[in-house]
Design goal:
2 domains; Arc Repressor Mutant, subunit A; 9-stranded mixed β-sheet; 4-stranded antiparallel β-sheet; alpha/beta; pyruvate-formate lyase- activating enzyme; globular
């Protein structure tokens, strides 16, 4: 335990910044699955047997963007082709129908349309998607707790009437990427199309329309960002009063453009935790409560229901090219992790022909199911829930980590089995979460990112730019 406590203390003192832990295992641990080895209906039937309450989160992925942000490593492609949008919407609706039995067998809790920039789709596309969902799950608008969509400020300003129509269709939350309210930093993020004036205009439009939950974000760590410019963005966003705010550390993965430029090569940034402290102080003073390590919400209004439920172990069905599905049996994708227009075309063809199958993923053992909850859900976790998920096999290891975390002031132990993060634990949650990773997942993650680092190194060598591999364990990408 002393060694683990020392390790935690050292990482905190160094200001280590791991990637935000929003999934376990991470996508980097996925590997190709044997062709035809997984039938979607069978694996979801197996998943159903692992849950006392049959529930479901639905995620629909729209990969299209007008431009690529420098920090983004998500599954996105650049296209404004309306015919492609039409064909893609048809494919997505076909997938919904093909998964009708899976959806109908569970209580649908949330619907999230992510991307990409889903707000690039036209009103007719959303009407088609929602009508298809209604044909499968007729009362979805009255039973789901959250209907969310991602949008850019410029897409809202370009078509406010179209966005208003989404509210009529049942939208309850929109995630609007802001990243900064400093013009220079907005340009640095590759978001020059969405300047400060456009951001403010988009927020005003959404609030005037009466959207129940406006979710925005800020990023700590852009090149050239100063403590003063960070405080400006935090102060100005607090004045705009969105119902939900996320503050992310900029952790540039090797498959993002920022990493390929060589401009972002850091692992230790203790001063960024000071920016975290400032944001927490300001937002809590403005009436927000902390929902997670990165997120603040207005009580009774804001929040990110799908993420919270997924962390709690509610399975997620991901449809669309590049979408991930999270079950208690297998986390999987039906395509590769490398976005491209040809692969989007293959997805459309596969959906039309009803031939989409899990192609890459990670098989979850009982032990890995327990680790998933520990990595994601230490905000408020009853360890007794994990007894049937494989906790016994790793009980000594987990106990030692939790003892070290408690000694370091990161967790409360409540009663016989409940664990909750302290305010300090919220701050350093991603460091603690990494300590629950299995050796297998660490090895897969390391191999994946070392391959990307090597590719970046070869590319930059031709330009005479040095490269440095850094990470939480000396190899893992973390910046």
């Amino acid at each position: 335990m002393n060694d683990l406590h020392s390790e935690l203390t050292r990482h905190i003192e160094q200001g280590v910044i791991p990637p935000y832990q929003y999934s376990y295992p991470p996508r980097s641990a996925y590997r190709p699955l044997d062709e035809g080895s997984w039938d979607i209906r069978e694996l979801w039937a197996r998943d159903l047997g692992n849950h006392r309450t049959p529930e479901l989160n639905l995620y629909l992925h729209v990969p299209f963007c007008r431009y690529k942000c420098g920090f983004c490593n998500l599954y996105t492609v650049i296209s404004t082709d309306q015919e492609l949008y039409d064909a893609y919407t048809d494919a997505l609706c076909t997938q919904i129908l093909d998964h009708a039995e899976i959806i109908q067998a569970r209580r649908l809790r949330t619907v999230y349309i992510g991307g990409g920039t889903p707000s690039l789709l036209g009103t007719r596309h959303f009407e088609q998607i929602f009508a298809t969902l209604g044909s499968v799950y007729p009362n979805w608008r009255s039973t789901v707790e959250e209907v969310a969509v991602e949008a850019t400020p410029d897409s809202i300003v370009a078509d406010p009437d179209g966005f208003g129509r989404l509210l009529q269709l049942g939208l309850t939350r929109a995630n609007i990427g802001i990243q900064s309210l400093v013009p220079k930093e907005i340009r640095e993020a590759g978001r020059g199309q969405a300047g400060e004036a456009t951001i403010r205009q988009a927020v005003a439009i959404v609030q005037e329309l009466g959207l129940p939950d406006l979710s925005t974000d800020l990023i700590m760590g852009f090149a050239g960002q100063t403590p003063e410019s960070w405080r400006h963005s935090v102060d100005e966003l607090a004045k705009l009063a969105p119902t939900t705010v996320s503050t992310y550390f900029l952790t540039v993965r090797p498959d993002a453009w920022f990493s390929r430029t060589g401009a972002y090569q850091y692992m230790w940034k203790p001063e960024l935790y000071e920016r975290y402290d400032y944001a927490r102080e300001v937002f809590t003073a403005h009436g927000y409560v902390q929902e997670g390590s990165v997120r603040y919400k207005k009580p009774g209004r804001g929040g990110y229901v799908q993420k919270v439920l997924t962390f709690h172990g509610v399975p997620l069905l991901g449809l669309g090219v590049g979408a991930r599905s999270y079950t208690s049996v297998l986390d999987y994708m039906t395509g590769s992790v490398r976005p491209s227009l040809p692969e989007v075309a293959q997805y459309i063809e596969g959906a039309r022909d009803h031939t989409l199958r899990p192609t890459t993923g990670f098989v979850l053992t009982a032990e890995e199911r327990a680790r998933k909850r520990l990595v994601l859900d230490t905000f408020d976790l009853d360890l007794a829930e994990l007894d049937r998920a494989g906790l016994d096999a790793i009980a000594d290891e987990v106990g030692a980590v939790l003892e070290a975390a408690q000694a370091g002031g990161l967790v409360h132990r409540i009663g016989a089995s409940r664990v909750q993060l302290t305010p300090k634990g919220f701050k350093y949650r991603d460091i603690l979460s990494w300590m629950f990773y299995s050796d297998r997942v660490k090895d897969l993650d390391r191999a994946y990112y070392e391959g990307l680092h090597d590719a970046n190194q070869r590319a930059r060598a031709t330009m005479g730019t040095p490269v440095r591999i850094t990470g939480l364990d000396g190899a893992r990408e973390s910046a």
